[in-house]
Amino acid sequence: MIGPMVLSPDLAARVRALPAAGALLDVLPEAWVVGGAVRDLLLGGTPEDLDVVIEGDAVAAARRLADALEGELVVHDRFGTATVAAAGHVYDLATARAETYAAPGALPDVRPGTVEEDLLRRDFTVNAIAVAGDGRIAAAPSAFEDLDARVLRVLHARSFVDDPTRLLRLVRYATRLGFAVEPSTAALADDAVRGGALATVTPTRVGGELRLLLREPSALPALAWVGAWEGAPLGVAFSLDAALADRALSLSPPDGRRDLLLLGSAVRSVPSARLGAWLDALGFAARDRDTVLTCAQAEGIAGRLTGAEKPSEIAAVARGAPLEAVALAGALGAEGPARAWLSDLRHVSLAIDGADLLAAGVPQGEAVGRGLAAALRARLDGDAPDRDAQLAAALAAA
Question: I need a labelling partner for 42 at 20 to 30 A (CA). Which of 49, 210, 236, 322 fits?
């Protein structure tokens, strides 16, 4: 049940003052700003992107907004939603709707509804607050009290049964925001995990929520929380060593994927064939899947790196392996070689290329590759610091 609608010109003014909101409400005065943006604003933040509910045709409203702001529009007709990217902001627009669930874990049956009905379908009370440009506010009971108390509470007792992916969102929000879980909500979550609720959801939906969780700055404690659930409800057992993962993250360069590193570190005990099938079922992209699989086998990389003495030997082991797997191998005991590769050796390049070898009379084919590989080894080991020395090394090998 949503509480009675009230007026709050002060809160509406704070919403309108957001960088993204003024232009939105000028074009769409009927829009309601909802969910995480309102929550984060009330917590003292300045959200740059907005979730918007329209009591009516959200797609038509999104077209008006995109035209007015000269933004990019993506329409999802099946769901009555659209996304507009304009002026550095992202607006996710949805038609206000009501939901019913035919079976636990099933996708909901939806129909157009009011903003009050739309709030009732949300996951937690702190995300069930909507603000209109004219100052009207609609909110779930205790939403503001829960926000002040920094607790997460579901809106009804069947919340985790209807949509078990909310279990992963509970973990994600609690760790990101530093919120406690309200006792009755915690009990409902425990019951849903033990009852196998997540098995009623398609693996791709679980995979989508898991990927969102892994991308959070708080992914390490979130993954530890999920790993502590009994019975491997996500399909495989996690064995996260938080200290190991933390060391690996400290070695990982800025262009590494911390989300894939964390997941790979947590599934090292899962057999490769089973792990690959699980990642496929969860909808991981092929490249991401392969990175996680290689991370899970990082102990072998660590052993080979530990035995490498010359820079060229380190490169022979690390080249072709994902950065994340090398960082994890470093945390597993090969820190020196891993750090050398990640910070320096992987960036070493030659002052010559295949054209130089062809011009020097090397026939096209394998000899060119062989010569360049020899030149790079010499360059890595300090034996060919300049172009002439690299060309000589290449010609000798070719």
Answer: 210
Reported as a single tens digit per residue, the pLDDT across 233-284 is 999 999 999 999 999 999 999 999 999 999 999 999 999 999 999 999 999 9
Return the percentage of the chain with pLDDT > 70, whole number. 94
Residue 13, burial from CB neighbour count under 10 angstroms (0-12, 13-18, 19+): exposed
CA distance 19 to 41: 12
Q: Are 374 and 396 in contact (CB under 8 A)?
A: yes
Which amino acid makes up residue 277? A
Please name the CATH architecture into which domain 6-149 falls.
2-Layer Sandwich (3.30)
Task: Give CA–CA dist 379/393, Å, rounded.
Answer: 9
The residues facing 92 across adjacent strands are 51, 83
Quick check: 87 and 50 in contact, CB under 8 A? no
Three-state SS at 238? coil
Domain with CATH 3.30.460.10 in the chain: 6-149
Delimit the CATH 1.10.110.30 region(s) of the chain.
Answer: 150-202+213-231
CATH architecture designation of domain 150-202+213-231: Orthogonal Bundle (1.10)
- What is the share, in percent, of the chain residues with pLDDT greater than 90? 83
Q: Which part of the chain is CATH 1.10.3090.10? A: 236-347
**Mean pLDDT score, 36-60:** 93
pLDDT tens digits along 302-354: 999 999 999 999 999 999 999 999 999 999 999 999 999 999 999 999 999 99
Please give the pLDDT value at position 111: 64
Q: In this structure, which CATH number among 3.40.109.10, 1.10.3090.10, 3.40.47.10, 3.40.462.10 belongs to the domain 236-347?
A: 1.10.3090.10
Separation of alpha carbons 266 and 340, rounded Å: 25
